[in-house]
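Sorry to interrupt, but I need a hand with the structure work. Could you write out one complete protein record for me, on any chain you like? Could you add the entry underneath, on a fresh line?
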Amino acid sequence: MSEKKDRAVGKAGTTAPATHSQPGEIDRFLGAAKQLAPLATGQAGRLVFALDATMSRQPTWDLACSLQARMFDVTSQSGGLAVQLVYFRGIGECRASGWVGEPARLTGLMRGIACEGGQTQIARVLRHVRDEAKAVPVRAFVYVGDAMEEDVDALAALAGELGLRGIRGFVFQEGHDPAASGAFATIARLTGGAHARFDVNAPASLLDLLRGAAAYAAGGRGAMLRLAGSTPAVKGLIAAMDGGQR
């Protein structure tokens, strides 16, 4: 399967023009996508890596940028990993990259993006994951954020669709915002995934969570179990997944 070019994610799961980007920034983002090498293997597990890129998220974005390459380290024995970056920011801007099989390529994309004020667009992320899975097999998605400003019932309906498709959601929360906590836990439960908190001042906490999600995307529960022997945070993810089963 050849990778898709980077594109805007529409409000109803269709493509739409982005707004409020700096001059030339979208052109640079799309130009970088054209340089992405094809995936090394069609058997690589696919993980959608979605982040809130509104203004308050810049420290966490920078942290995720520095850590994401290490997600790939745990997947080599499970067929490899392909990652698609999705982010939202500003007024109605939500974009998705092509599928990336090399961590350096993903780092390059992330370093070219600056956070910008705006409200959350989690529903658009979930619709995108659903629609993307109609074209290519997607095993899991990660969402990293700290807030939720949307209709939780609408998010729950979308999460339920993903759960029925067998797409697990790993929802990683910075902070303790109660609205976000409730919504994130619901998304995780309805997808059969896991909700966990991390501390941006303790990079290892997010790294372990990302590695656990990457292991699942590449090799399923068995790969997570192998990693859990040396990583307590992954044990917590597995326990959360088991506790959320219906």
Observations:
- The CA atoms of residues 98 and 225 lie 29 Å apart.
- The helical segments are 25-34, 58-67, 103-111, 122-132, 152-164, 178-191, 203-228, 232-243.
